[in-house]
Amino acid sequence: MDMYKNKNDLLSGDIVKFRKLERIFLERCRQFGYREIKTSTIEPLHIFTTAEALSPESLKRIYSFIDWGGWSGERVVLRPDSTVSTARYYLGHLNDEPLAKVCYVENHFFLDDTGQGVSERWQFGLETIGDDSSLSDVETVFIAFDTLHAAKLPKTFIHLSYPRIVKECIKHTFPEESDKQRALELIKTNRYEELQSLKTGENGLDTLLTLLHFKGKGASFLKNIKSSFSESDGIQQYLNRFIEVCLVLDRLNCSYEINFSLSKNFDYYTGIQFEILSRPQKRYARDVLCSGGRYNNLIGSLGKGDKETPSVGFAFYIKNIVALLHLSHDSLRHIAITMSNITHQNMNGARGLCNKLSNLGFVASITLNEIKREYREKYGLIIEVDYDKFRDGYAVIYSQDIGKSLLKQIFGESF
Q1: pLDDT, tens digit, 9 for 90 and up, residues 215-274
Q2: Whether residue 226 is found in the same domain as residue 333
Q3: Which of 160, 161, 126, 47 is nearest to 312 (CA)?
Q4: Are residues 405 and 348 in the same domain?
Q5: What is the pLDDT of residues 133-143, one digit of tens each?
Q6: Residue span of the structural domain in which 180 resides
């Protein structure tokens, strides 16, 4: 039977958790004015090779093929990333809008580790295009944090970075261009000790190494390191921007750790960068629940020349999140709505009740078959709908794990 199993399948229990997270995410997107979009599953290869959003390792794993049957005959890919697709979507449909706020629920495709099969993953994400304010950075981080908090995920850990600050520090530390490039490569692979072999300028390595090893919580920690930089080197303007973001996150009780060693993709991220992890420090790819940041150069690289287009966003890694969500809670909240007397009025009442309960966060479903007593324990609650039998049109005929206080909240004090 294993030949029929596919690692990309989402089981019914996974779907319950998937939908729960999707509902919470889209609710927050609606609250902040994001519109949901769907980008094409098949995209031209060149938009991903032109953009600098994907690492060289990721580009090697793109699933591409020649579009022989299409009108173009060009090489295309199964969508490996939604940020690049959203940028292409913006240029095609929204570039006359001064501000575009969009969100998506999409699947992505990569060649698996063997290079033979296709690995599929799901992401929820959002992008704000056209707003260069620090508050758009705050909004992005906060929505990611608040979504996971509302989903009652176990403890999460936010790491904030600002790659431009590290890149500017490298620029002032190493006078030779070749040493600058070498330093970037060493930092990307966490080989800080090898930086000592490079030729430095007057400032030496002390400030750069202090930055890379710096970890702190709150805007006050960033203010403490400002004195390490002079007004003339241009770094303080980026520190001030970082401090602005952190000050507002502090007021929102959004706990985070500042971690400059997180900076890796220096060409892509032009401002804040962040990750949300399931443990204090990342050990494996599965520890990453969310990643995002500001990338003002992406849209320009695709079609707007050298002009910067302010952009910031994030993506949730759904498989990693679903693995941490507990199904037992949802199972206990499963509600069955039954009808022993099937009429048009009762069906409409059952559907209305089902929608109301689903909007409250329950897993509710209608069944036309009688639920026998030996199967009732599968549900937290069973409601029968019958406008001829019950004064209110429905009544609770079985309750296991949903207490009376919650039932009164739903049905009123008359229950």
Answers
A1: 888 888 888 888 777 766 678 899 999 999 999 999 999 999 999 988 888 788 999 999
A2: no
A3: 126
A4: yes
A5: 999 999 999 99
A6: 10-33+97-322
Q: Do 166 and 248 fall within a single domain?
A: yes
Pick from 168, 192, 169, 170: nearest CA to 179: 170
Token pair for residue 317?
A: 């890694």
232 shares a domain with 120: yes
Q: Residue 312 half-sphere exposure, CB side, CA atoms within 13 Å?
A: 23
Its pTM stands at 0.83
Residue 152 within any structural domain of the chain: yes
- Give yes or no for a contact between 216 and 246, defined as CB atoms under 8 angstroms apart: no
Instruction: Report if residue 2 sits inside a domain.
Output: no
304 and 340 fall within a common domain: no
Residue 81 lies in a domain: no
Give strand pairing partners of 35: 102
Among residues 256, 296, 307, which one has the least CA distance to residue 144? Answer: 256
Residue 359 shares a structural domain with residue 316: no
**Same domain, yes or no: 342 and 251:** no
Task: Work out how many domains the chain is built from and give that number.
Answer: 2
